[in-house]
Amino acid sequence: MATTLTIPKLEMSMSEGTLAEWKVADGAAVTEGEVIYILETDKTARDIEAPASGKLVQKVAAGETYDVGTEIGEIV
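RESULT FIELD:
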């Protein structure tokens, strides 16, 4: 079963975030807890970890800004 990856709400006032960099290549195997991308907000940059183990499927490009809740990929 696939695990959907979305832009998380890291702060109360956060409405969007920038996917600064994918740390794992599209199609690569990831382990739960491994850092898979960096999310930048107005105030900080945070490492975001994989919520599950499997193969990472990237659905959006790094360097773009997305609304909270936008689907950016999945782990299958």
